[in-house]
Amino acid sequence: MEPFPEDWQRALAVVAHPDDLEYGSASAVARWTAQGKTVAYAMATSGEAGIQGLAPAACGPLREEEERRSAAVVGVADVFFLGHPDGAVEYGIPLRRHIASVIRRVRPEVLITANFDLTWDGTTVNHADHRAVGLAVLDACRDAANEWCFPDAGDAWAGANTVYVGGVGEPTHYVDVTDTFDRGVASLQEHRAYIEGLGAAFDADAFLRGIAASNGEDAGCPLAVTFRAYSV
Asked: What is the enclosing helix (H) or strand (E) of 166?
């Protein structure tokens, strides 16, 4: 693995749900914002179908607020919710257009998303929303650079030509998060209602530390977050 390049100033992270970035990537975001970089978040959904026993009309606003607080912990001020239906996100032109419009608005140099492989480990099937959104991010990155694609979605932006995908096997890059790991944990802990809704004891520090320590062994540092880079 190579160190994640840091010769940039603006990044946009696009994922399916509130809390997707907090399972590791948030610690890297905390490192970058501490360096003076700007990172924005975009969520395809509001996570409104994510808590059993809590109706979507009540759940969506609650999870949006948890995500805003979570983002603020790691220095992120701008969080966009795109309004696609939680659990039923469809890959296609409308989703690509929506993501391309956010890319053109933020004008990032770096794009980040989460694992969109079919499975997490070869046998556990990944969430359908993750698969749809991750693939759409790759395509929307190219769409955003083409002035003839979605001309109603803002001025073309070709400043980002690499998408970094977190939480995948066979990563290509790592971020040393030893100094910002605790902020990443605190960011995940802001999702209190969602975590309580899982109905089981969950130790955010222990969970994230185990992953980061394993990544760190491969990267040669105490704690690390890893990404796979795709050129678009």
From this structure: strand 162-166
Tokens standing for residue 187: 């960011």
Q: Give the architecture-level CATH label for domain 2-231.
A: 3-Layer(aba) Sandwich (3.40)
Any idea where the domains of the chain sit in the sequence? Answer: 2-231
Residue spans of beta strands (DSSP E) within 36-125 = 38-43, 79-81, 110-114
Task: Please name the helix (run of DSSP H) or strand (run of DSSP E) that holds residue 223, with its range, or none.
Answer: none
In DSSP terms, 113 is beta-bridged to 165
Sheet holding 110-114, edge to edge: 2-3, 173-176, 224-231, 162-166, 110-114, 10-15, 38-43, 79-81
- Distance between CA 15 and CA 115 in Å, rounded? 9
SS3 230: strand
pLDDT of residue 85: 98
Give pTM, 2 decimals: 0.96
The per-residue pLDDT for 120 is 87
- With contact defined as beta carbons under 8 Å apart, do 227 and 171 qualify? yes
Distance CA 188, CA 25 (A): 10
Q: What is the number of alpha carbons within 13 Å of residue 37 lying toward its C-beta?
A: 21
